[in-house]
Amino acid sequence: MTVFEYAPAPESRAIVDIRASYGLFVDGAFVEGRGTAFKTVNPATEEVLAEVAEASDADVNTAVAAARKAYEKVWSRMSGAERAKYLYRIARIIQERSRELAVLESIDNGKPIKESRDVDVPTAAAYFFYYAGWADKLEHSGYGTTPLGVAAQVIPWNFPLLMLAWKIAPALACGNTVVLKPAETTPLTALLFAEICQQADLPPGVVNIVTGAGATGHALVGHASVDKVAFTGSTEVGKAIARTVAGTTKKVTLELGGKAANIVFDDAPLDQAVEGIVNGIFFNQGHVCCAGSRLLVQESIADDLLARLKRRMSTLRLGDPLDKNTDIGAINSREQLERIRALCDIGEAEGAERWAPACDLPSAGFWFPPTLFTGVTQAHRIAREEVFGPVLSVLTFRTPAEAVEKANNTPYGLSAGVWSDKGSLILKVAAQLRAGVVWANTFNKFDPTSPFGGYQESGYGREGGRHGLAAYLKGHQ
Amino acid sequence: MDRIDVRKTYKLYIGGAFPRSESGRSYEVLDAKGRFLANASHASRKDARDAVVAARSAFKGWSSRTAYNRAQVVYRIAEVLESRRAQFEQELRDAEGISVGKARDVVDAAVDRLVWYAGWADKLGQVVGNANPVAGPFFNLSTPEATGVVAVVAPASPLLGLVSVLAPVITTGNTCVVLASQEHPLTSITLAEVMATADVPAGVVNILTGQRAEVAPWLASHMDVNALDLTGVDDPSLAVSLEVAAADNLKRVRRPRAEDLLATPDLSRMTDFVETKTVWHPMGV
Q: Coil, strand or helix: which one is A348?
């Protein structure tokens, strides 16, 4: 068989203009931070991209005060129809500057350009467009029309711009103002978004961006004057936030970890299932809270499916995130890479069998090959803990009841996948899975109209869709 | 000579049975004038854990029943309560010292509340669910599902308060462990007798009587409890510590808040204890 080599197809970096240093975005302007500035690096090269201000407690205070003032004087008094137009403007500017945002996202985060270009950025624009339309229709939402006030929002590094859109779009549509903290390792698209707010002439203080690490986030969610806390990140931090807000009137939504089961029945279309499994666990290097990290395959087809899966994994292209042919980009940080390595070592030590295709890793940067483990039991740590990397654990089952039992055997409950050609089986299993999102014969699909969020220790509240409004309004349905 | 009446032993309600507290303890319950009414079981940590086990065992069956079936069971509770209303009115007058008219109003409201919630069982999904028009060839549907085992600290109002917190939780398919009114626990056990004869499956409702400050922390920290309703917690510092404990496994927490029990409720007592599940399926070949 002739094998065609890929020629490199790099996206140009020329479109982005990364400044040497960035301040905080408070009350409509960039200001100096009073904390200790930190560096953000390109995880594919370890090149330092920029120096970013750290917001101190005093900076957080200033930002919350700016948001409060904008809430009381401007945003909560503006009609929904007018708020909508600002959000539509933002959606349009994201579309206009989509290439710039995609390249910047891939540089700062390490994700393949084809994902930032085709998923992150267009979906972020879609969230603003969708929630813009709700701003003047809240009386039809079922949750009333009264905003909460100032929202403290803390987002992770895996989908920096998209998570920002998930947080800011519904908050603003409902009439709240926000102080948002992007992740320490991926602040750049949020800071570019601040420029977009300026281009849209969004009133000062409606959106404030404070950069920093855990201490800044802690100061923000614990601030006495915020009315709402929205967090996406680890279950451990989510629990700490739940303790922090105990006894207050703050409304909280938590979007936390997962250990999703992807269940393949013997009548599934196997090639489609293989694509779904690959997309489920290797999309965004597996840095996805809803990643299909536990493959549950019916015993009778396990050998066949694994052979096809390994063949497919051997064709995945790992490397330069800006190359349009790249399937798997860089791991976001050295710290995350160490965590993935450690859990994989534990997987081997506990007796699971590790396999990865032959794969040249670049010498600089943070990389981990697409990996699967067979011979995994439910007690293994790689089957229980969130790896948050391109690592798939394979388990088998014999009956649908056993599949459901194993799928639900986790403290998480964010997502799940089911693959079968039999509709009645899919509907039955989907109903029995304790997970907030069930993808049947597909995986990792996201849409602004579709609620997203977990059961149990995957957090509470929903983002997206009509349900996503509940997080930012006072009423109850 | 007058006949000596046969008095009832008030026990707990766990897994469809009426056991005494394993601790062998009880506490005195007084009437509105301070006279001895009866001894109520004084539930322990072990009783709370047994109740959670019973609620968990019942969850799969109860949550997978049809909404129509759950509606009929909740309606049946209303029927049996109505048929025993004279007993409840008398108990409320004894316990709370309220008038004949007030007792009648409270029982009316409790029965009507059960009927109201019964009707919601097969409508909530229609009102809070959604077909979502995603931008792609997918069928996409969001529906509410029961959260799981809910621990409820019931308010002081022995009948209407209990019914108001219990009915919404089970109507949506959850099972529960209820810590009854500490001050007026007896009526809750009489209501358990109603449920035991109203086709409520064993373990769907479990009722403990005892001390809030002693039992509630065990329920709040229990890792097999999914949600916590703090309605009956009147001590703010206890409410905070319970909410902190609940974070260990991210229980959904309903904080205590002022509420007019006689007013028609909003949907929040149901929606606070359901999860939205969204199912995607491709449309195509």
A: helix
Mean per-residue pLDDT, A158-166: 98
Tell which B residues from 72 to 91 touch A, by Cβ distance under 8 Å.
Answer: none
Long-range contacts of the stretch B63-66 (C-beta < 8 A, 24+)? B63/B145, B63/B146, B63/B173, B63/B174, B63/B175, B64/A431, B64/A432, B64/B173, B65/B173, B66/B122
Q: Which has more confidence, A453 or B257? A: A453
Options A255, A386, A457, A463, the catalytic residue: A255
User: What share of chain B has pLDDT > 70, as a percent?
Assistant: 100
- A454 → chain B, closest CA residue: B275
A51 carries an active-site annotation: no
- Test mutation, A249, A405, A476, chain B, max B CBs within 10 A: A476
Q: Is A289 in the active site?
A: yes
CATH of A21-256+456-472, one of 3.40.605.10, 3.40.50.920, 3.40.50.2000, 3.65.10.10: 3.40.605.10
pTM: 0.96
Interchain pair B243, A246: CB under 8 A:
yes
pLDDT band, very low/low/confident/very high, at B179 (cuts 50, 70, 90): very high
A332-365 burial: b if 16+ Cβ within 10 Å, else e: bbeebbebbeebbeebeebebeeebbebeeeeeb
Question: What CATH code would you report for B36-260+267-280?
Answer: 3.40.605.10
Closest C-alpha to B210, from B65, B54, B2, B22: B22
The pLDDT value recorded for residue A2 is 72
Question: What residue in B sits closest to A463 (Cα-Cα)?
Answer: B276
Answer whether residue A475 shows pLDDT above 90.
no
A contacts of B255 (beta carbons < 8 Å):
249
Segment 219-248 of chain B within 8 Å of chain A by CB: 226, 236, 239-240, 243-244, 246-248
Spans of all domains in chain B = 36-260+267-280
Can you name the residues that pair with A30 across neighbouring β-strands? A25
Lowest pLDDT segment from A255-264, A302-311, B1-10, B35-44: B1-10
Q: What is the mean pLDDT of residues A201-206?
A: 98
Element (H, E) at A169: helix A160-173
Strand-pairing partners, residue A50, are: A40
Catalytic residue among A174, A197, A289, A344: A289
Q: Is the pLDDT of residue A360 over 80?
A: yes
Q: According to the model, what pLDDT value does residue A170 have?
A: 98
Which of B280, B283, B285 should be substituted to probe chain A, the one whose Cβ sees the most A Cβ atoms within 10 Å?
B280
Residues of B in contact with A456 (CB under 8 A): 148, 226, 249-250
Q: According to the CATH classification, is domain A261-440 in 3.20.20.140?
A: no
Q: Which residues belong to CATH 3.40.605.10 in chain A?
A: 21-256+456-472
Name the band, by pLDDT with cuts 50, 70 and 90, for residue A203. very high
Question: What pLDDT band is residue A3 in, cutting at 50, 70 and 90?
Answer: confident
ipTM exceeding 0.95, yes/no: yes
Whole-number Å distance between alpha carbons of A423 and A440:
10
Which residues of chain B make contact with A449, given a CB cutoff of 8 A?
132-135, 140
Interface of B with A in 155-214 (CB under 8 A): none
Q: B1 Cβ partners below 8 Å, 6+ apart? A: none
What is the tens place of the pLDDT at every residue in A319-348?
Answer: 999 999 999 999 999 999 999 999 999 999
Compute and round to an integer the Cα radius of gyration of chain A. 22
Distance, in Å, from the CA atom of B267 to the CA atom of B8, rounded to the nearest integer, reads: 37
Determine the 3-state secondary structure of A279 from DSSP: helix
In chain A, pLDDT over 70 holds for what percent of residues? 100
Rounded to an integer, what distance in angstroms lies between the CA atom of residue A261 and that of residue A274?
A: 14
pLDDT at A477: 64
Of A247, A249, A437, the CB nearest to B278: A437
